[in-house]
Amino acid sequence: MSLASALPRHAVLPLASPGERKPPASAADWLPSPKLAGVSLASRLEVRLAPEMAASGVPALDRMTGGLPRGCLTEIFGPASSGRTSVLLTALAAATHHQETCVLVDAGDAFDPLSATAAGVDLTCLLWTRCNEKSSGKRNPNRSPIMNRLDQTLRIIDLVLQSGGFGIVAIDLGDIPLTALRRIPLASWFRFRRTVEHTPTILLVTASAPCAPSCASLSIQLRANATYSQNKPAHAQLVPNLRIEGELLRSRLPRKPVHSATANFSFRGSWENLA
Amino acid sequence: MTQLGMTTYACLFVPDFPVQAVLRAEPELRSQAVAVTIGRAPLQTVLARNEAARNAGVHPGMSKLELESCGGITLRRQSAAQEAATHAALLDCAQAFSPRIEDISCHTLLLDVAGLEGLFGSPQQLARKLTDQASRLGLAIQVAIASNPDTAMLAARGFSAITIIPPGKEAAMLGPLSLEVLAHHASNFSHDDDKLFDTLQRWGMRTLRDLAALPEIALSERLGQPGLHLQKLARGETQRMLVSSEQALTFEETFELEHPIILLEPLAFVLHRLLDQLCERLQSCALAAQELRLRLHLDTGCADDSCTVSTAPSIFIRTLHLPTPMRDAQLFLKLLQLDLRAHPPGAPIVKVHLAAGPARPRAVPTGLFLPPTPEPEKLELTLAKIAAIVGEDKVGCVELLDTHRPEAFHMKHFTPPVADPKNEKHPTFVTAMRVFRPPRPVNVSLENGNPVRLDKFPIVWTAGPWRTSGDWWEPENWSHDEWDIAVSEGDSMTLYRLAHDLLCRSWFLQGTYD
């Protein structure tokens, strides 16, 4: 590497007239001007380390993505009945199995504790916050109930992330319409990502559509393969296997795939476990 | 360095105790001339005053009318609750040094400090530490250390700041003290010595040295054994055992307001002051608070001048149960503010009483490989702030109830779990459900008893029904037929749980599988 390339861009170089041979400049001549004393050399810039990966609980997803990155924002989206909540609960179950304290910010108040228990979530390790437009928080009377829920959600996420110490901060925006999702300021997502940076917290967002496009380190789209049996199922069997196809749309991690990768996995009906 | 004998006693004395009780609650008055009055208006008289008021010519017994001639004197009523809290703070200060304490009066304590050199150093260092500790609790005390309790008490009462009396020099050091000091000291134990002191005054006795110099036999002939006892006190020759008593650990602070507080913001200043004092006292005893009990006395009387009958003040009580013992005044203040904002008292406040339930401080587990856990103090504040946004019943830890009733769970306060190495819950791949709260009513078309159409969308697949019912003996009984259905909504397929309420004959969607 040449000396010039190691210098900061604004370093003051000694001038020499053409044809005049100057002795080699001393180190002091290469120092930046006093105005630029605070500018650090490019070589001193912080090297971003690869984040630690945590198991999501779904081996097929882990094979595709390497797991859920800690200190990053991971986005899982898909339409209704595409398996978003099942993946979310499996990730929470994997985290609570290791006694990590997790938070679920439930924008739509749609969390089912029975499903969570069936998925293996340790409910004692899970803090559940239920957003509701009828609650006693500060609200703008002219705003729609959905926007009130969203406002509460964003405020709670800020509080939870500032508190720190959580293994997974899960944000369930699955019931928020796309028009409302688009109204979340991008600055909020950048702030959330910045807050969890260099912490062991996984920020996991589930939604019906991508909502934090440039802030998510991982963006996974889920689709359901609706191959339901035409035969009438047996008694005590309600929901058959839910077959899911996951596609990794974006990854800002070192093991970024060249093309989008897909993984297939399935979830069983909870009644099958009981039957 | 002064060396003392085997038995050593320290006396803590709070001069102008009623004034110090007021100044402890209102520290901003320390630079002013303050007098504490007693009695009903308009017949108040001065009970005690601080140094600045003393210099301004205020003396005990002055009437309020006489005080007006002095000018610039801040008057406060005597507060029994504040004095009790100050006495408790003095006890906490003493208990931080020695377990053997004799509670002489509200402003005087005796401590057995024999053998504490290894912990606190020389007597001078011990006395300085006692003074510093009391200062942290908002008290300016006089400390004396001597080889017998009575000498220590006389010296603490008679000399300012710190006094160390080596063994054998009691009479010499007590000599310059006024006979009034002995009179005050004797009044703690006996109320029949007034005539004796009158006699001594008539004899021309002014100091303890004068009394100590009297011939013993002649004194005994004239004043009897009480006279001899007073002379022994003056010479520092009395010997007695310390009557130590077990003090109950009560952490309570009270503030009586001159004018009622209406807004929560000024109340926060009062609470902050009380919490600071409570936390200091807890720290001096190496304890923390497990719960906080706030009791507000409200002025519910008529504000209208025409209303002459005022009702008795009502009491507003709030209790904060903390998941782990804590000792952070700022945190407590935030929690109380959030709680009071959610549950306002509803009337002007005339008296604030704050009590802390003591507990041993939390032992912080350390370990490199422990999973991340939020700090309890931060978490508690975060939970309180979230509860202020969404409501108290919308945040916490969910606990399932032992019933098949839908939505059978209740929310409880979230406490960080203790790491359990025997956690046997493993993640399993189960289709999760998203619940509609409340259930969404729908129109369903039937064919041969099976649902075939949900509103305008065709049902492409069904499974069920699954009948569930219960609590038939209760008014809130339920009886449902449940189907799992797949509905084609445009280009997407959604799985729903459909329920038919057999009691009210209505259809509704309980949730989606996702």
Quick rundown:
The complex is a heterodimer of chains A (275) and B (514). With 275 residues, chain A is α/β, with parallel strands linked by helices. Chain A has helices at residues 3-6, 59-65, 84-97, 113-119, 145-163, 178-181, 186-196, 270-274, and strands spanning 53-54, 68-69, 73-77, 102-106, 126-130, 168-173, 202-207, 218-225, 242-251, 261-267.
Explain the overall architecture.
The model of chain A is unreliable at 1-25 and 271-275 (pLDDT under 50). Chain A contains 8 helices and 10 strands. Chain A has 275 residues and is α/β, with parallel strands linked by helices. In chain A, the strands form 2 sheets. Chain A has an 8-stranded mixed β-sheet with strand order 5-4-6-7-3-8-9-10, with helices on both faces. Chain A is 26% helix and 20% strand. Chain B is an alpha+beta fold. Helices cover 32% and strands 31% of the residues of chain B. Chain B is built from 15 helices and 21 strands. Chain B has a 7-stranded antiparallel β-sheet with strand order 15-21-20-19-18-17-16, with no helix packed on it. Chain B has a 5-stranded mixed β-sheet with strand order 5-6-1-7-8, sandwiched between helices. In chain B, strand 18 and strand 19 form a beta hairpin. The model of chain B is unreliable at 303-310 (pLDDT under 50). Classes of the chains: A alpha/beta (275), B alpha+beta (514). Chains A and B meet through helix 3, helix 4, strand 5, helix 5 and strand 10 of A and helix 15, strand 13, strand 15, strand 18 and strand 19 of B.
Keywords:
heterodimer; A: 275 residues; alpha/beta; eight-stranded mixed beta sheet; 10 strands; B: 514 residues; alpha+beta; five-stranded mixed beta sheet; 15 helices; 21 strands
